[in-house]
Each structure stands twice: as C-alpha cells, then as structure tokens.
Design a protein that fits this description.
By secondary structure, the chain is α+β, with helices and mostly antiparallel strands. It is 43% helix and 15% strand. The chain has a domain at 1-63: Multidrug-efflux Transporter Regulator, Chain: A, Domain 2 (Orthogonal Bundle), CATH 1.10.1660.10. Helix 1 (8-15) crosses helix 2. Residues 114-120 have low confidence and may be disordered.
Amino acid sequence: MQETGYSGTQAAAVVGITYRQLDYWARTDLVRPSLSDATGSGSRRRYSYGDLLELRLIKTLLDAGIKLESVREVFRYLREHVTGDIASAHLVISGSTVVLCDGDELVDVLQRGQGVLNVLSLAGLKDDIDSQLVPLQADAPAGPVRDAG
C-alpha cells in the first residue's frame, strides 16, 4: 500500500510556512521529501506524514527563536542519535538551548555548556511512595486514626 503524499503547496499550508521556505529547506537538505523529490522542471515533491512532523518541528524551533543554523545542528544530532522517527523525540527548548530528553538524561543537542544533565523522574518517586504506603495501610487500625499530638 502506497502512503498518501502531500504536495509542496499542501505541506507548506499544513505546517504553516511559505512555499519558498519549504523549497529552500529541501534544496539545502534540511528536510527532503521522502516520497518523491523534485528531479527537474515540472517534477513534484511528495512529502510523507513523517516529513510534515519534521517540518513542523523545524517551524516550532524557529518560532522559539532558535536560529536556522542551530536548527540544522539539532537535526544533524537527532538523525545521528535518535533511532526511529525524529518527530517522536522529546525536546526541551529554553532560550537558545535545545535539549533532548533521552530516557532519564537530558542531552544538550547544541553542546554549549553542560553536556548531560540528570532528570529526576517524578513517576519513579510516586511509585516509591506508593510502594511504601501499601504496608502502612495493611497495618492501620480499622477505626479512625487520631493524632496524639
């Protein structure tokens, strides 16, 4: 079964960019259409749904104030280090910093300053507390609990 493709005009409209931006990004290899690329005059690019997600990610980074050259660095890093769909990556944008959330680590994608930061998983803390509460509930008296203080 062949995937439905989107023309350049459709892709630009869906993502919220101009056709000129889309054309520039394709010509400079930021995001090339994965279904069919332009091969000369009269040929048409066909973008996949995954391409649209990548294009939207680029627009989001640009809208957040990340410079186009830095966006290129982010995508180089993602393509080298993220297995599977780039659009499924979790990015944290703070000022001009872009950080990839990779499991329980935050990796500075643009590698300016701290390389890796540890992430504290709140879900893990919740699980720890819940597991500690189970024995307390089993030992609790059947009636109401009164505070002795």
